[in-house]
Amino acid sequence: MSTVLRPPAPSAAPGGSPRDRSRPAPAGGGGRGDRPTSERGRASAARRRERRGAWKTTLAVGLTMGFALFSLSPLLQGVGWWLATMAMVVVLLGVSALLRARGVPEVVVIGAAVLVWVAIVVLLYAPGTTWLVLPTLDTVADISADLAAARESIAVQEVPAVAVPELTQLLVMSIGLIALVSDELANGLRVPALSGTGPLAVLTIAPLVRRDEPQVLVYVLTGLAFLLVLWTGARIGMGARTGSGLRTGPTTGIRPTAGGRNPALALGLAAAAVAAMVVLPTVTPGLTARDLTEQGDGTPFASTYATGVDPTIQLGRDLRRSDPVLSLTYSTSSEEGLYLKMVNLSDFSGGTWQPEAPYDGVSYEGQQFGTPPGLAADVPVTDVSTSVSIAALRSDWLPLPYPSQQVDSLSGNWLITPNTFTVTDLQGDTRGINYEVTSLAVAPTAEQLATAGATVPDDLAGYLALPGDLPPVIAQEASTVTAGAATNYDRAVALQEFFRSGQFRYSLAAPASNGYDGSNAEMIAAFLEKKEGYCVHFSAAMAVMARTLGIPSRIAVGYAPGQTADSTADGRPVYEVYTDQLHAWPELYFEGIGWLPFEPTPGLNITPPDYSLPDYAQQSTTGSTAPAPSSTSTATNTAGPERGDVGATQSAEQQVLAQVRGWSIFAGVLVAVALIVLAPFAARRLVRRGRLRRLATDPQPGTLAWLELEDTLDDHRLQRSHGDTLADVEQRLTAENMVPVDALVRLRVAAEFEQYAPPGSASDETRARIGRDLEAVISGLDAQAQPRDRALARYLPVSLWRRRRSAASTGALVP
């Protein structure tokens, strides 16, 4: 807000200034007994005037939060969670808006809104734990338990997750607080630009959980709603002036200013806001901070939002998760642990592995699965019975050994995909299910594998599909590796040995740090060059290379065999499977035998199936019966297979360096945040120092000093009118004892003098005195301000966003 330079106003009569004499006397005779009530009434009326239109900003904040909350829809099923969360937001913002409209002090507004939040949380989620109406320690314990359950649900569910009551409670509580903070930033502190941090934090959740197609419509709508926050926030209190053109209300304290307007700057900020809302969530990497050390896999931050099984093959994020949770246990008649498959990734025609569609399934009511595709009657098989108990896993798919024959003790509506033997219920909640499954252990002889037909049935042609732009290096590498192989079986064994021969190294960190963490064609080509990756890369590469050789292939996603526990069930060992034992492995098709799993991933303490080993043919020629092709895991392996390998391959020095890198990244983030926070402070200081230096050379040092004072008053949110003269500003500041009177008078006189004197007439002594007076006035303003107001003036100087002031030739300080 600027001030127009005018000739000094006439001196006031002894009874007071003309403006004072024109004011009506306080109601009630102005007696001492009426003064407190009158002052409170005037203060309340002044707050109402200053907040005129604030409800529009509150409404805009609510819209912004509502649109931002829609970004979580790909992660959660249904809309009940959105309605419940928005109900909390509406109530909290409605209470705040109502209290502001009543002229209640801002601190009371905040306190009342927080109390309403506490009351709603307690009544909804811990109603039986209060004493009368007051929360107790049992209330805290009950709510803490709910939040712990929500955290566990986040850790084990797949996307889209079931919005269980604990998850909904977490959203209601957290988003409600975020909305309160955003509203306070926009209305209470009058910094609407910072209120966008809350919605932006909500928008970044989905990209942190899974990298998916950007929700452009949601980002645009959120950005537009945020622009409405900026627009309405800049107009709070406008129009609340008396007929004289001056704002009414008490003259004490520091009040927000309406400020000048710069359309070009506003348009630039608007474009930047929309760009940030749209672009930032789409490029945010999938990282969340669990701790400050690397997880032994080279990843400085573990994924706490990763889900049970993400069939879009973002297994790296799942494997890097924090705090592994027990997914399931099983006991089996097999001599070794079993792969438990959940879903197949079979479509690679577009250059990225995609899961099969469960909607092709038929209702499953306990019937036999039938003969596995491609399995001939003369291939040796062994019946295997397995008892599975799901612990914390929530998934659309049922973990089953392949090929299963029958599942008993299932309740609910389940679907089976006939061609792949996968079972799903599309509800995403398998927790607590216990079932019995009968499966086959297929043990083909070496002769059967060697004579397996290379003909691909028409219904399996899709398992050979490759994109037209497949990098040539993949097919070339496959041809080189299998140059000496005579049959498809020999080629498959050669491919597996290629990956397990020592040329490749298991690493969760390398793909992420080198930019090839994925399963598309380009990432596979990069993996073959770098020779470092984890199960996703090994299985995807072997499957694609097999297709280039004419071998049908697919990727199975599920769980590795797990680790044996100390307990037994019916005389059989019990295997425990944790969330960090998610695994992917290739399955190759051989006519007359069917689909066989292979294990190209090294370093997991898993022995590949016997039939996939190079010496299997020599063992079979002796006439011995081939053992059941199961995969083994070390019984004493206390870490998950994906997890244990990495820790075992890191030396002490590497672990120390990993911790140093983790702390360095954290320190870098803190420094970046500090620089962003301190940037306005530094910029404002540079502007002030530049003006102080220019006082020695500027043709109008008094006018320049007054310009700096005007910006300082803006930074302190000191309210003035467009029609105030320099004398009006001086009178107000001196009347309220804000600044040294003599220094302010000399500044005002110097500025007025320059409106009539030729430029450059100020002497060096005058220029030095103007500089000293300006610093004294600024110091006085800083000294009398409240700590919060002083901090706002220093670290959020609004003068940086005002239109620049300059001395016009007519002598006016223009806005």
Task: Please supply descriptive tags for the structure shown above.
five-stranded antiparallel sheet; alpha+beta; 815 residues; disordered C terminus; 26 helices; single chain
Radius of gyration: 36 Å
**N-C termini distance:** 6 Å
Helix content: 40-55%
Strand ordering within the main sheet? 6-9-5-1-14-13
Q: Which spans have pLDDT < 50 for at least 5 consecutive residues?
A: 6-36, 240-262, 280-313, 620-652, 804-815
Average pLDDT across residues?
76
> What is the count of DSSP helices, taking H or I runs of 4+ residues?
26
Biggest sheet statistics: 6 strands, antiparallel
Tell me the total number of β-strands.
Answer: 18
Strand residue percentage: 5-15%
**Broad shape:** elongated
Protein structure class = alpha+beta
Kindly describe this structure:
The protein has 815 residues and is α+β, with helices and mostly antiparallel strands. It contains 26 helices and 18 strands. It has a six-stranded antiparallel sheet with strand order 6-9-5-1-14-13, with no helix packed on it. Helix 4 runs antiparallel to helix 5, helix 23 (726-735) runs antiparallel to helix 24 (741-753) and helix 24 crosses helix 25.
Question: Could you write a compact summary of the structure shown?
Answer:
This protein is of the alpha+beta class.
List the helices and strands and how they pair.
Layout: H1 18-22, H2 35-50, H3 54-69, H4 80-101, H5 106-125, H6 137-156, H7 165-188, H8 197-203, H9 205-209, H10 216-233, H11 263-283, H12 315-319, E1 326-332, E2 340-347, E3 354-355, E4 362-364, E5 381-390, E6 404-408, E7 414-417, E8 422-424, E9 434-442, H13 446-450, H14 472-481, H15 488-500, E10 505-506, H16 509-514, H17 521-530, E11 532-533, H18 535-548, E12 553-559, E13 563-569, E14 572-578, E15 582-590, E16 594-597, E17 606-607, H19 616-620, E18 632-633, H20 641-649, H21 652-694, H22 701-715, H23 726-735, H24 741-753, H25 764-784, H26 787-795
Parallel strand pairs: 10-11
Antiparallel strand pairs: 1-5, 1-14, 2-3, 2-12, 4-7, 5-9, 6-9, 7-8, 12-15, 13-14, 15-16, 17-18
Helix pairs in contact: 3-4, 3-7, 3-8, 3-10, 4-5, 4-7, 5-7, 6-7, 7-8, 10-11, 14-18, 15-18, 21-22, 22-24, 22-25, 23-24, 24-25
